[in-house]
Automatic annotation (TrEMBL):
Domain NADH:quinone oxidoreductase/Mrp antiporter transmembrane per the UniProt entry, residue ranges: 26-295
Gene assigned in the entry: ND2
GO BP annotations, alphabetical order: mitochondrial electron transport, NADH to ubiquinone
Enzyme Commission number(s) of this protein: 7.1.1.2
A Pfam family assignment: Proton_antipo_M
Catalytic activity: a ubiquinone + NADH + 5 H(+)(in) = a ubiquinol + NAD(+) + 4 H(+)(out)
Membrane topology: Multi-pass membrane protein
UniProt name for this protein: NADH-ubiquinone oxidoreductase chain 2
Membrane-traversing stretches: 7-23, 29-49, 61-82, 88-108, 155-174, 186-205, 211-229, 249-269, 281-305, 326-348
Length: 351
């Protein structure tokens, strides 16, 4: 656990410094240095867990991140040879091969299609706090760097590349989670699916990325903290939660919100992306994104119904009725937030 680490808070500070250095830099060398500082701060949290699965996940994560960093350096060297500058805002057009290598390096660090293979297996062997950091904080710097690359060169080939990556991420996240029973692996595939939506939101501006990422981080933080507080650390499937029935149903509601079930909060950013892309020429890509989200909803709803029926058999329907205050409160809060978000979005769209 995080509290047992001797220098845990120092590692968190190193991670934060690395992320802020990458986001605030306009020089590719300092961007690479910030990503490496972030990696140095995150790896000790994975290695010092004294478990075989945690060490295996740490080695996989280190190898993939090192490969992604080498892609970043190689791509920046190619663009340096073409433009004779290391500055990010140098006023030049990227060479197409160097640009593709830069995008590949950032996609590998994020775990996006077609470099998605490592993320579910790494998350399946990590504790909950490390999973939370991997699903939220570790995405900030590479995503904003992707946004910077898109603002530099909004060419047709780059837009096509982003659309292919976003559609592939969502479909992989939907298909990959179909046969999974481990909750951590399911959340890994869900993270890949959300990365597809976030990549497509980049095409519509910085505000779409920030709105989607903020709501995703808020929902993931609530879900991971709930799972962390209700688990001893070795949970393999949703039925092994060591909590009461109402608490398990609250966790499942958060899972459905993360999957984007309307009218919960997680549906709002997807609905916003659909609305802003409905007038663009890339709207057919949204159909693929919706298809992947429907597959994600399928396995989350399957988990929900199996959990509900097992709880009804174990505790009886009398303890799961509508009079339970905790369930009613969670449902009401999520629905009210989702409904207000829909009304606000409709009002903004009318203006």
């Amino acid at each position: 656990m995080f509290s047992s680490l001797p220098f845990g808070y120092m590692f968190l500070c190193v991670m934060g410094v690395g992320t802020f250095l990458s986001v605030s830099s306009i020089h590719w060398l300092s961007i690479w240095a910030g990503l490496e500082i972030n990696l140095i701060g995150f790896l000790p949290m994975l290695v010092y867990q004294k478990g075989v699965s945690e060490s295996e996940s740490a080695v996989k994560y280190f190898i993939v991140q090192a490969l992604g960093s080498s892609f970043l350096i190689f791509g920046s060297l190619m663009t340096f040879g073409f433009s004779f500058t290391w500055d990010l805002y140098g006023g030049f057009q990227f060479e197409i091969l160097g640009f593709c290598i830069l995008i590949s390096g950032l996609s590998m660090k994020l775990g996006m299609f077609p470099f998605h293979y490592w993320l579910p297996s790494v998350m399946a062997g990590l504790p909950w706090f490390s999973c939370l950091l991997l699903a939220t904080w570790q995405k900030l710097a590479p995503l904003f760097l992707l946004l910077c690359l898109f603002e530099l060169n909004q060419s047709y080939s780059m837009i096509v590349m982003f659309c292919i990556i976003s559609a592939g991420c969502t479909l992989v996240g939907g298909f990959g989670g179909m046969n999974q029973t481990q909750v951590r692996a399911l959340l890994g595939y869900s993270s890949i699916s959300h990365l597809g939506w976030i990549t497509f939101a980049v095409l519509h501006g910085e505000w779409a990325l920030k709105v989607y990422l903020s709501i995703y981080i808020l929902t993931s933080l609530s879900l991971f903290m709930s799972l962390w507080m209700s688990d001893s650390g070795n949970m393999k499937n949703i039925n092994s939660l060591k909590t009461s029935g109402p608490h398990q149903l609250i966790i499942m509601l958060l899972l459905l919100s993360l999957a984007g079930l309307p009218p919960l909060l997680g549906f709002i950013p997807k609905w916003l992306v659909i609305m802003v892309s409905s007038k663009s020429s890339w709207f057919p890509v949204v159909l693929l994104l919706i298809m992947g989200s429907l597959m994600s909803l399928f396995y989350y709803l399957s988990l929900f119904f199996s959990l509900f029926l097992s709880l009804a058999k174990k505790y009886g329907l009398g303890e799961l009725n509508i009079s339970n205050k905790s369930i009613i409160t969670s449902i009401a809060v999520l629905n009210i937030i989702g409904g207000l978000g829909l009304l606000l979005s409709n009002a903004l769209n009318m203006l």
